[in-house]
Task: inverse folding
């Protein structure tokens, strides 16, 4: 009973330190939600560049997110995929023309140039470019200006900016295709933990989350580090690739059940769901021709043509299991916004914040931060340190009492 009383006091203290508004009161810890610069401020600069990360920090992001892949010499660099023709100028570099090949990545054939076929020195000769130029022409002018950063360079930037800003900038690395990289002798987990440890990131309350769409590598990471882990979720019908390899029949839909979430809570501190698992959407066929209606008339079926449905219970279910919920990906272009928002991305953030989301991955962290601060109250008081957020990694009082009661029932 004393333990429950102490946790109740801690919860009260957390709420006293962080004045909260309508949305923040519903988060797992009672603190305002965090904003994660998704691949940096990737709505404004080519993704996974130091320029994109630095801009995200300037815009107020609490965390910056490097997706991690390996070079041929086993060094971790920030790229969304190990195939890099879409995000670098490698296809225009004649000295690397013979490196183009086709590989099977997570069960699918992919043709292009792959990081694991290049040394870090070779990677450093490449320059980043905008991945979706047709949607982000403003970012295209930065093509060719920036190198591909290593994980260490991202950490160095976060530490430098933390000192300059007087607030802790967290890092949120993702292991990309861990089963594949294991299969070619370039395991991601050990070098990741080594670099983090060398930089002083070792404890559960450090400003780091490690995320993955796979399950086995997160469970392995649990044996290597005390840093908080986050289980990512794709569409409910999809499967973690390590499940495909092992013959496990479960899908992400199975993992977001109450029993699945309780199992995840044994190795992870949070989940990172695709936002459509929280607020679904679907196409309509008002003219009855058997085809999805192109509601905005742009000739392409996108998020802009999929009205929203009622929210699911995923946030509350995850909170009941003691899991944080950090949803992805929030973008400002009409192409990525449901028609319900009428082209206003702030309305999407507002909806998710009011549902009690604990954090958002945003390509436009300035918009996310502005809405978060407005909903939370006084922006000078309601942007908690990421380390402090993790220090209050406790359940709401009602959940603690519920678990305590269930414990006695089972005894």
Result:
């Amino acid at each position: 009973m004393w333990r429950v009383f102490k946790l109740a006091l801690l919860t009260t203290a957390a709420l006293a330190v962080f004045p909260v508004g309508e949305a923040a009161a519903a988060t797992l810890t009672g603190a305002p939600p965090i904003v994660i610069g998704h691949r940096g401020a990737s709505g404004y600069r080519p993704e996974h560049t130091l320029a994109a990360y630095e801009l995200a920090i300037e815009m107020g992001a609490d965390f910056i997110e490097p997706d991690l892949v390996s070079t041929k010499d086993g060094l971790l660099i920030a790229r969304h995929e190990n195939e890099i023709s879409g995000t670098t100028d490698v296809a225009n570099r004649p000295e690397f023309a013979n490196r183009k090949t086709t590989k099977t990545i997570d069960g699918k054939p992919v043709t292009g140039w792959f990081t694991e076929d290049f040394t870090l020195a070779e990677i450093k000769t490449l320059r980043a470019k905008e991945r979706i130029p047709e949607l982000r022409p403003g970012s295209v002018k930065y093509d060719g200006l920036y190198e591909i950063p290593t994980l260490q360079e991202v950490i160095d930037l976060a530490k430098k900016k933390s000192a300059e800003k007087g607030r802790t900038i967290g890092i949120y690395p993702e292991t990309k295709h861990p089963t594949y990289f294991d299969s070619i002798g370039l395991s991601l987990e050990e070098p990741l933990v080594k670099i983090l440890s060398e930089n002083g990131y070792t404890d559960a309350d450090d400003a780091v989350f490690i995320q993955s769409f796979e399950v086995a590598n997160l469970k392995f990471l649990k044996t290597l580090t005390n840093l908080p882990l986050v289980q990512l979720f794709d569409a409910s019908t999809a499967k973690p690739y390590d499940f495909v390899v092992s013959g496990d029949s479960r899908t992400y839909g199975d993992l977001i059940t109450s029993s699945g979430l309780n199992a995840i809570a044994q190795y992870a501190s949070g989940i990172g769901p695709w936002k459509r698992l929280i607020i679904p959407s679907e196409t309509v066929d008002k003219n009855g021709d058997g085809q999805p209606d192109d509601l905005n008339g742009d000739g392409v079926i996108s998020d802009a043509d999929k009205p929203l449905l009622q929210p699911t219970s995923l946030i509350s279910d995850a909170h009941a299991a003691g899991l944080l919920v950090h949803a992805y990906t929030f973008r400002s272009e009409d192409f990525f916004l449901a028609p319900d928002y009428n082209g206003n991305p702030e309305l999407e953030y507002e909806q998710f914040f009011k549902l009690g989301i604990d954090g958002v991955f945003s390509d436009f962290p300035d918009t996310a931060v502005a809405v978060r601060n407005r909903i939370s109250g006084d922006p000078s008081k309601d942007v908690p340190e990421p380390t402090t957020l993790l220090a209050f990694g406790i359940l709401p009082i009602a959940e603690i009492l519920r678990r305590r009661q269930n414990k006695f029932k089972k005894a």
